[in-house]
Amino acid sequence: MQPIIGNHIDKMERQFPLTLKFQLITLLKQWLFTTSGNTIGDLKGKSSNPQALLWIKINNYLYRINADTKREGVIAFLKNESKKKLLGNNPNRKVRGTYKSD
Predict the structure, then answer these.
(1) Using one digit for the tens of pLDDT, what is the confidence trace for 43-98?
(2) Domain chopping of the chain, boundaries
(3) pTM
(4) What does the CA dihedral 38, 41, 42, 43 come to, rounded to 10 degrees?
(5) Cβ contacts of residue 59 below 8 Å, gap of 6+?
(6) How far is 43 from 66, CA to CA, in rounded Å?
(7) Whole-angstrom Cα distance, residue 28 to residue 58?
(8) For residues 53 and 40, what is the distance between their CA atoms, to the nearest angstrom?
């Protein structure tokens, strides 16, 4: 699992993605409840950073979650996770309020 450094999740290597939805949920909850950061990644002084921070591979689809994913998007994802949905129809979509159906 990726460490949280300060207010942000450390960058994950693409070749070592999360492979379970539970891992993603656990990591996002840990970040949400233990930090005060506005985004999951360090934007390094920029207002946006569409660099991939997290990777998750489910059903042979590789999804990325960008560093500029906001706290509100994480909250929306965690609220919707109980509806058995994941990420977006677009594998490049950031975590937001709409997710790909299982």
Answers:
(1) 988 887 778 899 999 888 899 999 999 999 999 989 887 665 554 445 555 444 33
(2) 4-101
(3) 0.78
(4) -80
(5) none
(6) 10
(7) 17
(8) 8
